[in-house]
Amino acid sequence: MNIELVKKIVLPLLVFIAILGVWSGIASVVEDFPTPANTYVAAFGGENAEGDEVEGVLADPFYIENEDDKGVFWQILESLKRVFGGFALALIFGIPLGLLIGMSKNAQYAFDPFIQIFKPVSPLAWLPLLLFIFQDINMTAISTIFITSIWPIIINTALGVRSVSEDYMNVAKVLRFTPLEKVVQIILPVAVPYIFTGMRLSLGIAWLVIVAAEMLTGGIGIGFWIWDEYNNLAYDNIIIGIILVGLVGFILDVMMGKIADYFDYTKKG
User: Fold this and answer.
1) Torsion angles phi and psi, residue 119, rounded to 5
2) Is residue 68 helix, strand or coil?
3) Integer angstrom CA distances of residue 20 from 13, 32, 33, 38
4) Is residue 186 a contact partner of residue 171, using CB atoms and an 8 Å limit?
5) Amino acid 265: pLDDT
């Protein structure tokens, strides 16, 4: 049997057992903290430690009681809609701006100070102002994601443009390429791996931001669902929500990584 394959299975399993041990330890010290067993029952249904029959959160994730009471599938779907809305806006504005900054020293001098100032600003700092501007939950969440996830796209796109060999740029001058031809035929093929790295980072930030944004704005979404479960003192469901957020984030990252590898000429031999 392949030793590396065994390590990939056994080592995560050992870490998982250690996490369960720490989790159980916390539950034994902190009063009313959910145990792994109780959390499993809260997720999939069954009888909890008190002997009560529980209908699991994941037993029927597709239910719709009314507009404000839906299963976790719809909560996650609503969050994903906002994430991809803000992410798409970040792509539309971020890639052209990154190309401009990478190709023009003047543009770099003009924009770089503001990128460095606004890049570290927390999404929670933008949220009250954007809520005041839009007076709408969806637009506030989307615009918050846009503002906080655009920076990796701009920075990595500009880095990709600057990584283009000077020899290639000289060839473009000799052949008298137009600016558009230079971008399409010389710059983009080299910069695409960098752009997708920025997109991957940006999507991760977008998914991170949406949970915090929904906790404050309310409505429907996995972030608000987690906060609502806290208000209901359903701590088991909070842990389930955290795990779901992590799993969805992991899936998004893997998908974006596969797409990035597909367009990365350096990995195609």
Assistant:
1) -55, -45
2) coil
3) 11, 17, 13, 12
4) yes
5) 65
